[in-house]
Design a protein that fits this description.
The protein has helices at about 10-25, 45-50, 95-110, 110-120, 525, 560-565; strands at about 30-40, 60-65, 70-75, 80-90, 130, 135, 150, 155, 170-175, 180-190, 225-230, 230-235, 235-245, 250-260, 260-275, 290, 315-325, 330-350, 355-370, 375-385, 390-395, 400-405, 415, 420-425, 425-435, 445-450, 465-470, 490-495, 505-510, 535-540, 575-585, 595-605. By secondary structure, it is mainly beta.
């Protein structure tokens, strides 16, 4: 039995749930488990629940009936009690790993694929790496009849452990119906030489000549955090770690001990969607517009982390589990990493008498990493001693590649080796921030900085002020970041005032960002309509979980945030969700090959009148330690 209602479903619970669902809903070989997630209890329930109280664990199970081409959703308890069950006409299940594997197997055996590969000098289909991608653009008319289809970009595996992304096979794709498991189309349109320059990156394949002396993180008394199940206590923070098959890493119930008073800041924080639009119009690229969260289930691809490389220091890990399409449960060891990091100076001042005061900053790091085909995404949540919360996405892995004639004109791609092109693309994330700043009833305010024209209010030309706009309804809260106004947004509790008589709050500070270059009228633009605003604010509704809707795979578009906000509900002084959209415009560099150094982007939640003074003042100074040895003269 789980110790807390928000704990992720264990492997044993998931196995029990699959068994109960099969019995209750008469599921057989025709039915795939598309998603199995904790049906999270309501805020009202959690507010009234106390440790030791009995509770019922429910799961939300998404089922795909291959024969009827129907999505169904059911909620069932770990004891087998059915809470609800309904069909979702028109919805299409995400692409499942077992479907992808079978589709690739079928494509390999198709004689047309075999013949097309032989024309390119490849006589064994086992020497070809295939991937299954949703068709992220217009589906060809001859198969655009509602069936679920994928297409298969291909690369030549010249060597057993070689980097096959260095050798893309141009112009050849199979299109596979993943319900009937048949190849419904072969595209063999353009034959160009396969790029031959290798792209080795394994240690065994190249000399790693740059060495530094070992850096060891040693905490002789152990880490400063404690782990009780999925609850973490560190410094003055406490929160609960969550894991979801669709979203991956989740953070629940975030609280800060403010001089003996535990104050709630957030209920649930997650990255609810990640979509990658590709900008090259060539045949091998224009369809690559994947919803890694909604079309695949990002949590399915979570890495097992390795001590000393993925994380460094005094590490604590948490395991996770996911249910595959066939109902088998797969455990992911070391899925989530937790540790502390030194983070430089927290604050410092040297007084006029020469007396220095300095405090070093330490932060708590909660992280997980996923690998989806060529790319790795690291999700990092940081908690700081001054009350800040930061999210950082770390992007690495191998850039997606296309093959063409060396030095061919590709205005939307970078040639990184002769005949090897990396198409331009973007990464668009959407954070779902269910904050409860000192309680659930909050308001969101836009703050702009501006200068008056020269005159009585700006006599010297250097004065500037801020203006604040309280969002009253959902349509008014669809906003873009404005660098010219140093725009930021803050979420406040108008019912709780600080010692200066102002509402307590937190501000959202944008990090690097971009704007989608995919046109809104395109297939992807319609399906990912959320990405055309940097901020959305909605009334908190349990069913509204994902910004592109529950089922983006082959959806005609318009679902999610664009649809929900048509109701234009009141969002002032009520329970709201902030949705922050942030992205990276990736114009690949030659230096991004063969493995891309980490790119970083994210955002920070910073206290804004939440505390009486900075909590950083309560941090004790570190003991000065040096490594000079017996001849020390550094003054420490």
């Amino acid at each position: 039995m789980s110790a807390h209602p928000l704990d992720p479903l264990s492997a044993a619970e998931q196995e029990s749930l699959v068994k109960a669902a099969r019995a209750a809903w008469k599921l057989d070989h025709r039915h795939l488990i598309a998603m199995l997630q904790l049906d999270e209890p309501s805020k009202e329930f959690l507010n009234n629940w106390k440790i030791g109280d009995a509770f019922i664990r429910n799961a939300r199970i998404t089922i795909w009936d291959q024969e009827k081409a129907m999505v169904s959703e059911g909620v069932i308890s770990t004891s087998g009690e059915v809470k609800s069950y309904k069909d979702i006409p028109g919805a299409k299940a995400p692409v499942l790993a077992i479907e992808s594997n079978r589709a690739i197997e079928i494509a390999r055996k198709d004689q047309r694929v075999i013949d097309a590969l032989k024309k390119r000098g490849i006589n064994n289909t086992d020497d070809v790496h295939m991937e299954t991608w949703p068709i992220g653009a217009k589906i060809p008319d001859y198969i655009d009849d509602g069936r679920r289809v994928i297409w298969t970009p291909m690369w030549h595996k010249r060597d057993k452990d070689g980097n096959f992304y260095a050798h893309p096979i141009n112009g050849l794709h199979a299109i596979v119906d993943i319900d009937k498991f048949e190849v419904v189309g072969i595209e063999d349109d353009e034959q160009t030489p396969i790029p031959q320059t290798a792209g080795p990156y394994r240690e065994s394949q190249q000399e790693s000549l740059v060495h530094l002396k070992e850096l060891s993180i040693h905490q002789p008394e152990g880490p400063s955090f404690s782990v009780n199940g999925w609850r973490i206590d560190w410094e003055r923070w406490n929160f609960r770690v969550g894991f979801d098959q669709r979203e991956g890493l989740v953070v629940h119930d975030i609280r800060f001990n403010d001089n003996g008073t535990e104050r709630k800041i957030g209920h649930r924080l997650s990255i609810a969607e990640l979509v990658i639009p590709y900008g090259d119009p060539s045949q091998g690229s224009y369809r690559k517009n994947a919803f890694d969260t909604g079309e695949y289930g990002l949590g399915n691809f979570t890495n097992s982390l390795t001590l000393g490389c993925d994380c460094l220091g005094e590490i604590t890990y948490l395991d996770a589990a996911v249910t595959e399409g066939d109902g088998k449960v797969r455990e992911i060891k070391n899925a989530i990493c937790m540790h502390e990091e030194d983070f430089g100076i927290l604050w410092k001042h040297v007084d006029i008498d020469g007396h220095p005061e300095v405090r070093r900053s330490r932060r708590f790091v909660l992280s997980s990493i996923v690998t989806i085909n060529n790319y790795e995404y690291g999700y990092y949540w940081y908690f700081y001693q001054d009350g800040n919360i930061e999210f950082e996405a770390k992007l690495t892995g191998i850039v997606l590649t296309l093959g063409d004639t060396p030095h061919a004109v590709h205005p939307s791609a970078t040639e990184i080796e002769p005949g090897l092109f990396a198409p331009y693309h973007q990464h668009v994330f959407c954070a779902r921030l269910d904050l409860d700043v000192d309680g659930p009833n909050n308001s969101v305010i836009e703050v702009d900085s501006f200068a008056h024209p020269m005159g009585p209010k700006n006599p010297h030309g250097g004065a500037f002020e801020t203006s604040e706009t309280v969002f009253k309804d959902e349509k008014s809260a669809q906003r873009l970041y404005d660098l010219m106004k140093s725009r930021y947004w803050k979420i406040v509790n108008p019912n709780k005032k600080n010692h200066m008589g102002k509402p307590v709050g937190y501000k959202l500070i944008t990090g690097g960002n971009s704007y989608p270059l995919t046109l809104p009228e395109s297939v992807l633009g319609k399906r990912a309509g959320f990405m055309y605003q940097h901020l959305w604010v909605t009334k908190n509704t349990e069913e509204e979980r994902y910004p592109a809707g529950d089922y983006p795979f082959q959806h005609p578009g318009g679902d999610g945030l664009p649809r929900w906000t048509q109701a234009n509900r009141s969002i002032e002084n009520t329970d709201v969700v902030m949705w922050y959209v942030f992205g990276l415009n990736h114009i690949p560099r030659i230096e991004d090959w063969p493995v891309m150094p980490v790119e970083r982007l994210g955002f920070t939640l910073k206290p804004m009148g939440f505390f009486k003074r900075t909590p950083a003042m309560d941090v004790a100074p570190n003991k000065a330690v040096c490594s000079c040895g017996s001849n020390c003269n550094c003054g420490h």
